[in-house]
Write a structure and sequence with these properties.
heterodimer, A: 277 residues, mainly alpha, MetI-like fold, 2 domains, 84% helix, flat, B: 266 residues, alpha/beta, six-stranded mixed beta sheet, four-stranded antiparallel beta sheet, 10 strands, 31% helix, 26% strand
Chain lengths: 277, 266
Amino acid sequence: MSDVAPVGTVADARESALGAWFRKRGGAIVAFIALFVAWELAVRVTGIKEYLLPPPSRVYTEFMKRFDPVMASAWVTTREIVAGYLLAIVVSVPLALWIAYSRFMENAVYPVIVFLQIIPKIAVAPLFIIWFGFGFAPKLLVVFLLSFFPIIVSSIAGFKSVDPDIMDFARTTGASQWKMFAMIRLPQALPQIFTGLKVGAALAATAAVVAEFVASDKGLGYLLLQYNGNLDTPMVFATIILLSLIGLAVYYTVELIERFTIPWHVSQRLTAEETLA
Amino acid sequence: MSSVEVLQSAIVIDGIAKTFRRGNTETRALERIDLTVHDGEFVAIVGPSGCGKSTLMRLIAGLTSATAGSIKLHGTRVVHPQTALGIVFQSPVLLEWRNVLANVLLQLELRGRDPAPHRERALALLATVGLADFADRYPRELSGGMRQRAAIVRALIHDPPLLLMDEPFGALDALTREQMRVDLEALWLETKKTVVFITHSIDEAVLLADRVVVMSARPGRIERILEIGLARPRGLDARKSSRFVEATDLITSIFLARGILHGTRH
């Protein structure tokens, strides 16, 4: 009873947010099943050649035949995605903080970051092969590079988006800089940081595949090129679907963390979406 | 009223001036302001946009530094941000991840005090402003007026001797505004804190304050200080009194003379 903040409404908000989430995703799952059924029927009815468009059932059976080696490659690619993405978070969020609060960093470093952002990052991938060889490092770096920019740009915006009046209020309490940061600035910045994290997550999978295209002897990107060269179209499809699932898993992990970290923001966004719909 | 009343000075503003510099252009926001606010007094500062009234409030709170002159709060010169006060802005600036009660208690948490013992008092204060049933609601679930009431409670929870309000009702609709004014007077009569209330509404200034400071713009300076002397509580009826009409007419005529207001076009 001595709790300062009654937690009831937060829990309620979280529960209804999850409920809304399941209600929303339910429709999408049905739509996907319908898509696969339509695809299967279309291939069978038209009798289109398998190397052009294999039916989903064939994709599935081919995939199950080579399940172990493909999953081993999937694991390689997943590691590249997760490691590069985590590295991007660990570097860009603190750097964003520094840029947001230091006039010097903002004047000196931020323009460089904005400029580098314009470089097509994928074009740099071959260079990484020259510098770091064919192993894990160049892939990690390409993933890092692609997810780094959206995270840092939105984190800077987040840290800078604090209302000056709330900071004036905080200063009249004599609170330390650290306390103001932990209680006001950081939570205020989280919604925008998460926006960047989600964009970065979506780019991470693309980055890993591109890095593997350039030069590698394992991973899903490598397999994809092999299957493509052999006109093994069912396995090309299987690999693409697997890659999508990995990307989706990373993205939804971030979204799930967002739901539990800033339920106050997520539930507000859901309400806004419902109002629009 | 036979007791000897010693009017202590809560705020002494002595020759304050503030000039903003941007590149080579200088803007004189305030020019030689002298003003003394007594303990327990309600002072309203009324003036057009750009007259530096918000700057004056930030100077009193020690949130910005003056170009010249000095300000003393209860005898101590203001150099750093002051903590013996409560502050309310035009926007309620509540934290959207905290419910109303937790937003009020933020004041104490930022001061490094345990909020638990102040819970009862916070709930009681919320009840006096009509938010008894909304303590566990989130800012997004409240109307603009209710949010501003919560912000006022947040400014009072640590029982400061001074309350600074910068156009606190400026973003509210006219009816809500009228109610907020009546309720603020009641709250002030109960707590008897020193209040500096900044507004661009002549009516609001006259209806609320013991003294109205009339300011004009570019550079911001004090044109006149008016004793209002209307009986309290003034509530809604004070608008009918001749003193109200007289005071608002006088302020209007000052603004007309300074070109801040224009009469009928010729």
